[in-house]
Amino acid sequence: MSPRRAISGGRIDRLRTIRFTFDGRPFTGHAGDTLASALLANGVTLFARSFKYHRPRGVLTAGIDEPNALVTVLSGAVREPNIPATMLEIYDGLNVASQNRFPSLAYDVGALNQLGSKVLGAGFYYKTFMGPVIGPLKGTRFWMFCEWFIRRAAGLGSAGLEKDPSRYERMNAFCDVLVVGSGPAGLIAAKAASDSGARVMLAELDATPGGSANWSGETIDGLPAAEWAAETLRDLKARENVRVLPRTTVWGYYDGNTLSAVERVADHRNTPAKGEPRHRHWTIRTQSVVLATGAFERPLVFPGNDRPGVMLAGAALRYVNQYGVLPGQKIAIFTNNDSAYHTAEALKKAGAEIVAMVDVRDDTSVAGREIAREVGGEYLAGHAVVATEGGAQVSGIKVQRINAATGALSGDPRSIHADCLLVSGGWSPTIHLASQAGLKPEWDNDLQAFLPPKPTQNWVGAGAFNGSFSTEKAISEGHAAGLTAAGATDGKADELPSVDADAFDPNPAPVFEIKAKGKAFVDLQHDVTADDVRLAHREGFVSVEHLKRYTTLGMATDQGKTSNIPGLAIMAETLGKPIPDVGTTRFRAPFAPVSVGSLAGERYGDIRPERLTPMYDWHVENGAEFYAAGLWHRPMIYGLSGESVEQAYVRETKAVRGGVGLVDVSTLGKIAVQGPDAGAFLDRVYTNMFSTLAIGKARYGLMLREDGFVLDDGTTWRLGEHDFLMTTTTANAGKVMQHLEYLLDVVWPELKVQLTSVTDQWAGAAISGPKSRDVLAACVTGTKVDNDALPFMGIVYGEIDGAPVMICRLSFSGELAYEVYSGAGHGTHVWQALIKAGEPFAIVPYGLEALGTMRIEKGHVTGAEIDGRTTARDLHLDWMLSKKKPFIGSAMMDREGLVAEDRLQLVGIVSLDNRPLNGGAHIVEELDEANPHGSLGHLTAACYSPSLGKYIGLALVKGGKARQGTRAFISDPLRKRFGPVEIVSHHFFDPEGSRMHG
Amino acid sequence: MLITCPYCGPRDVSEYTYQGDGNRTRPDPASTDQEVWNAYVYDRLNPAGEHHEIWQHSGGCRAHLAVTRNTLTHVVSSVSFARDAGHKKSDSRRKTGAKA
């Protein structure tokens, strides 16, 4: 028999023994136990070392508010840190380690920090590492020197480095009423809403729904409350319009009554069942919400209040009634309200000895005095605990007389032997979700607690959440809330279950802190003491928000669930203001820690879609190396064995300029612009004219943004009177489409134009080089392709090996060139036919590197130069700006700053040391390798030009037009590339364009 | 946040793209008044409360919608196709922008 397990009682399955390991030691517990209850049953009281001072810590609570007993769950090499032992259900094979201790929990060298605790107070980091320190360890270097030690010393658990092997999933749900919390109020609310026909979801963060019914020991409808809850739950689960989610924490309340929840599906099992995720994230959209989230008990702040063996009285009630565990044998109770008396009764009944009831109030109730006499032990009304005694475990308490109104202590302290001290400082409604969907919380002076705010969304509260602490009220409020949330009114109150419970007065005496000598902790998880709060005040922190950040009070993983109100009360007293005047910090999501995996769900790794052109497989089979252009995968080079990238693109470029080559241009954005007003529309969006373009001809077009900067360029082909095919750059296809859609929908809805994205419908192959016409002549049927039939910028229709094609004669490479478009399904067929027809002419496929090299030689611009900061003039494209008509950007493009002479302008750059240039390198007038400065601009693209036999590039250079023919330097400190260059015209090759017109 | 597309029905905000202040009217294209153009291109209303906005259902039918949204609560009080809506006029518009 476990030393602390009561002989009978509790909701655990005593016939099922569970074996688990804590810090390498084997333990047993029962099905239904949490790690905390199972270890307590085994007599373990030391659970953890504290964050800053490494003080021994036990377990304070029995739920999600636990600040102390955080553990790391080990599963193979995977570590899951900072799990409250109070929330961790045990299973066979569970392996848990304690945290923040070395070498072991019982003997921890970090506990030496307590000796230095005088200097480790609030603001330690801010104060210690700012000023200069004499000698070599000054300033930040000293800080970095110390940081390693400090980071090791302070902290909670550490995450592992292994990849998380668990599966997570995300779920969307829709309902009429979401009930949060499944205590008596929540159960009844769900039932009432369901009875009215609403679709109901009921979320409970614990494993067993029922809330306080699981441990209150009360009687509901003639049944033990826990059995009544189980029966009600069975009824609810059987209903078609109710979904019950246990182990589900609703953690965020967002706009439009959208709530976020995380369901711990498989954390209570050794391995998830087949198909089961570890966690499931829920996005719940609901018409209305019932908040039945209960209340958290507050500790009292007094010296030694963090010693293992000190526990909240309500938690002890839960341990004894739900788990059949006694938190001690000789128990003392310290309270400022009546709720702890109920715990005393339950513990006495389960076989514990109550050695003392200490109540700060002199005028306790008759019922209270009656219970105190029944449970035995000393009854010390008007007294306070001023210290705990013992080492890593309470062995006794010291008590002294107190005036509850003034807090003044009097008389001599006296020791009482006890191995456990239960504390109650009153109850705070769990208003976190309400605070996310409401105005400011409202202070109630009787309850000494913040009550829920006025809602700003559609929710209604019930039970302890409202500050209604009796089960009878919880049931009546829950019923009403369920009906209200479901939009029904016809519920009958006399059908409600009856409750048999001790009546008690929930109002506490307004005592939060016992001021005696010694460390009294407010925030146990972050080791913040009452003196730290006062120190912060002395140092000028007046606002509660500043106090929180300076002391880190309430900023740990528990988000101050047990410490916020005591901290606020101490702050208020220090300021000499009432608590509501000090205010409270706003509760933000998440209510409790949420696993990142559950937020990501299935979205991890590289989840970008891949866009592949119709000819992709051919490229792969023919040795292409690819690069990613946005989502597209485009051939970079078709390398031969042993070739470097530069050798490959130089070979490909020479083949094109000397013969013929074929490149895949299917990625260009293609938009069908159709309708009677298509020509007029294009005149407005392009800087040049399109309405005058003849059918069967193409024209190069330039688009500006409204602010006058260049948006995109491309060719647009007139296929019919009302039918244009616009091409855009690969990168801007989506942006241009959206721009045009906006204009048609919002600015000119009167224009009759239809836009269709046809990028994926066409396969495009550009055939370039002096012999390109010969190749086409050899394979195209149904049309001639000579200079008369197909002049520059002309369009013809024909067939290639049976597949219909549309051919436009235009050139990006500067050579005689054609773009051959076919339906995407024919893309590879046409490509292969072109390659075959080209074989007698030694055709080569070429990739983006060769394409880029030829465009640099020609001085054509792409996305590297159209970077959102350049104007048409900067890029020497002012010849395209029509003066005959207004167009998008025409009104703004002539602004002072946009026509200035010293703007960054497009130029060509030639390397004078015959070494490669890199895109991104700066252009400077004078070289200063030690202290690079004075940038005139930057290289946007660079390559080796086989036509010139030099390394060249394009650059945007300040006042570049005037600098042509001058010398400068490139300065690329990151890649350590410095050297002389010449600034030249961006037209390196065939500036007259004689080759492409030939 | 849900926006009810008149064509597709209620859809999550992640399907939409914000396309800016819906109170703007593009000036007469022939206008050379820089102040008017500056106001159109750069000035945006940023009210705390009801706001007229343009959203595109980019992950759906791609229509631009005139949406009235409360910037404090994200409550969407009206949605219509921007093509049909009288979204261009607003009394709260600053003088310079309203001129054209």
TrEMBL record, chain A:
It comes from the Bacteria. One of its GO terms (biological process) is tetrahydrofolate metabolic process. The keyword Chloroplast does not apply. GO terms for molecular function: sarcosine oxidase activity. InterPro entries: 2Fe-2S-bd_N (IPR042204), BFD-like_2Fe2S-bd_dom_sf (IPR041854), FAD/NAD-bd_sf (IPR036188), FAD/NAD-binding_dom (IPR023753), GcvT/YgfZ/DmdA (IPR028896), GcvT/YgfZ_C (IPR029043), GcvT_C (IPR013977), GCVT_N (IPR006222). GO terms for cellular component: cytosol. Residues 176-443 form the FAD/NAD(P)-binding domain. Keywords: Oxidoreductase. Residues 517-601 form the SoxA A3 domain. Residues 905-990 form the Aminomethyltransferase C-terminal domain. Residues 615-885 form the GCVT N-terminal domain. It holds the Pfam family Fer2_4. Belongs to the GcvT family. This is Sarcosine oxidase subunit alpha. It comes from Mesorhizobium zhangyense.
UniProtKB/TrEMBL annotation, chain B:
GO terms for biological process: tetrahydrofolate metabolic process. Pfam families: SoxD. GO terms for molecular function: sarcosine oxidase activity. InterPro entries: SoxD (IPR006279), SoxD_sf (IPR038561). It comes from the Bacteria. This is Sarcosine oxidase subunit delta family protein.
